[in-house]
Amino acid sequence: MQRRYITVDVFTDRAFGGNPLAVVLDAGGLSTVQMQAIATEFNYSETTFVLPPHDSANDAQVRIFTVRSEIPFAGHPNIGTAFVLATLAAKPPARLRFEEKAGLVPVEILTGQGRVTGAELTAPQPLQRLSRVDIDQAAACLSLSASDVKADRHPPQIVSVGLPFLMVELASRDALKRARPDAGAFARTFPCDGSDAVYFYTRDVPASEQPLDLQARMFHPGSSGLSEDPATGSATAAAAAFLADLDETRDGELRLGIGQGVDMGRPSLLLTRVRKQGGTVASVHVGGGCVKMMEGTLELEGEG
Asked: N- or C-end of the chain: fewer Cβ atoms within 10 A?
C-alpha cells in the first residue's frame, strides 16, 4: 500500500532553515517496527505518523519517532504535523487536537495573508522540576569549564512539560558557540529522570542577533553518536516554563523569542508564551513558522 509523506522545515520562514520533519500520512496498519524503520530511513531528528484518533472529539493520533525510539511528546513534530494537516484541509481549522503518549496536545493554527504559516502548541503536562546536576558534571557534558556555567538564577536541573531535558544556563554567547558534546560525560550523566539530552542557553545575545531574548542549543543521542538539534520545541517549552516559574510575576503572560540552530547553519526562531496565575505556571505555549519542502509516497505492506 502507498503511504503519502510530506516533509517540512519547522520554526523557520524559509527553506533549509529550522528543523526538518517527515510527516507520514495514512499510517494505519503500520507496525511499530515499520514506523521505527521509516524514521531511521528518513534520519531526521523526528518523524511523525498520523493515525485516526481513539476519540472522535480529537483530530488525530500522532506517534513520534526519533531514529532510535518512540517518544511521548516533542515540539517541532507537533508544529509541523499540524501545519501539514491544516494545509491539506479544504478549509484550514483554527486548531487541532492530537492524542499522544504524553496526553492531549492542542495546537493552534497560525495564518497570514490568507494562508497557513505555522502553528503553536500547548504543552501537555505541567512543569516538573526534577533532579539537579552538579555544575562541573553539566559543564563536562558540553566540553566546557564550570566557569562557563551561570547558576545565579538556577543550577543545572532536569525539567519537563512532557519530555525531560537537562537545562543549563551559560555565561556568554562565546561559551554557547564553543560547546561540544562529550560522550564520556554524557554516559556518566544520563539516563536521568527519563532524560538523555542537554538544552543550554545564554541571555548574552549580541546586538547582531537581537531582538532575541535567548540563544540556545541542544545535544542528544542521534543515529551515530551524539548530535545537535536545530530547533527543539519541547525543550524550549520546558525552558520557558522553568524561567517563568522562577520569575517574580504572579499573574500575566511572559513571552520569549528564542534562537536555536544558528551555530550549525540552520537558524530557527521559537516564540514562547507562558501564562501565570497566582504565582503558578498555568499553561505553556511554543510556536513558529513552517515551510513545506518535499512530498512523495512509500510502498509498504500493511492493512491501511
From this structure: C
Contacts of 173 (CB under 8 A, 6+ apart): 202, 204, 205, 206, 209, 215
Strand partners, 216: 201, 260
> Given the DSSP bridges, would you call strands 128-132 and 157-160 parallel, antiparallel or unpaired?
antiparallel
First to last CA, the chain: 7
In our burial notation (b when 16+ CB lie closer than 10 A, e otherwise), range 281-303 reads: bebbbbbbbbbbeeeeebebeee
Instruction: Give the integer Cα–Cα distance in Å for 183 and 286.
Output: 30
4: cell is: 503519502
Is residue 46 among the annotated active site residues? yes
Q: Name the strand (E) or helix (H) holding 118.
A: strand 115-122
- Give the model confidence (pLDDT) of 181-216 as tens digits: 999 999 999 999 999 999 999 999 999 998 999 999
pTM exceeding 0.70: yes
Exactly one of 46, 100, 169, 228 is catalytic; name it.
Answer: 46
Distance CA 70, CA 18 (A): 22
